[in-house]
Design goal:
The chain is mainly alpha-helical. 80% of the residues lie in helices and 0% in strands.
């Protein structure tokens, strides 16, 4: 009987995720610096454990989801209980007691996140993506701690504003604190929730900074939010954010919102030009990446800007029915253009 000294079938199967990821990297679909994370994801999707190559049972995955849901519910109930307590006794606590209560909540959430991250297979496994349930749960707790810490900073600044001359500073410094703490939480254990919390802090800081410098009109904040959306897209495309799709969606939403904000108090023509530019950029990015958030952003921007411009330039002479008709036709045209771009991209 001959013995096969070549590659064992189990070895070939265990190396399959690596070959798949290398092929994706070769086609530019995966960033080379994120190869290890991609291998873990493909390994789990193929139903094999990352370290042993043993089949991964569906029951284990179901148990993991139940544990995750229970963890989220438990954390939500704890936060709700603390919120109800503070709502009932907030005034009675006084200034010092309020700050102490917020600090305690921050420490409790941070401690809970640290405990969840360290149990089981440990922090390294969660950080590397080999225990996604525990990573997401711990990251959500750490993000909650970052939010509580940011609120604490805002409250301290508010208490320090004796004369009421720094009305915009609590929001601004609280937003900056959320950016710093959220970045730490994301760095420790990245997740979609952590990225969303980081984006919320950045948005708050940007909007409040416009009030701090005395430029609360729509133009300046709009340009800053538009720039923030561009930064978010760049960070997503360069692999800084692990959740690329989430980053693309956040960046696209911020860009559309920022482009529209000059309509509030600024020149309408600038809003139309910025929104049209966002539409062009969205379609161009979709042609390059085939990522659906960019296509949605392009279609949404076109759908919004065309009726706005037409109604404005005709001084509202179209009436309500005409405005609705223009909006409907624009949506149909933008959707048709989006489907056309999508079809051509997939054909290429």
């Amino acid at each position: 009987m001959s013995t096969n000294l070549g590659t064992h079938p189990t070895d070939a199967a265990s190396d399959r995720p690596g070959r798949v990821v290398d092929d994706l990297i070769g086609h530019g679909l995966v960033h080379p610096q994120r190869r290890a994370e991609a291998v873990d994801v493909v390994t789990r999707s193929l139903g094999t454990a990352a370290t042993t190559g043993e089949p991964r049972g569906a029951s284990g995955s179901a148990r993991g989801r139940l544990v995750e849901v229970a963890g989220y519910l438990g954390g939500a109930l704890v936060v709700a209980a603390l919120g109800l307590f503070l709502a009932d006794h907030w005034i009675d606590l006084g200034d010092t007691g309020q700050v102490v209560a917020l600090v305690v909540i921050t420490l409790l959430l941070a401690g809970a996140g640290a405990v969840v991250a360290s149990i089981g297979s440990g922090y390294a496994a969660a950080r590397a993506g080999r225990d996604d349930v525990r990573r997401r749960l711990a990251s959500a707790l750490l993000t909650g701690a970052a939010v509580a810490g940011a609120v604490t900073v805002g409250r301290v600044v508010d208490l320090a504003d004796v004369g009421g001359r720094w009305s915009s500073w609590p929001g601004f410094l609280g937003g900056v604190a959320m950016v710093v703490l959220g970045a730490v939480a994301y760095r420790v254990l990245p997740s979609a929730i952590a990225q969303a919390g980081l984006a919320g802090g950045a948005f708050t800081a940007v909007v409040s900074s416009a009030d701090v410098v005395g430029s609360s009109e729509g133009t300046v904040p709009g340009l800053m939010i538009l720039a923030l959306g561009g930064v978010w897209v760049v960070l997503s495309e360069t692999g800084v954010f692990r959740e690329v799709v989430v980053g693309r969606a956040i960046g696209s939403a911020l860009a559309v919102l920022g482009a529209q904000m000059p309509l509030f108090d600024g020149p309408a023509g600038l809003a139309y030009a910025l929104t049209a530019a966002v539409a062009v950029a969205g379609f161009a990015l979709y042609l390059r990446t085939t990522a659906w958030p960019y296509l949605v952003a392009g279609v949404l921007a076109v759908t919004v800007v065309v009726p706005e411009a037409i109604i404005d330039w005709t001084d509202g002479s179209l009436g309500a029915g005409g405005a609705v008709l223009v909006a409907g036709l624009t949506l149909l045209g933008a959707s048709a253009a989006g489907f056309r771009v999508r079809q051509e991209t997939h054909e290429d």
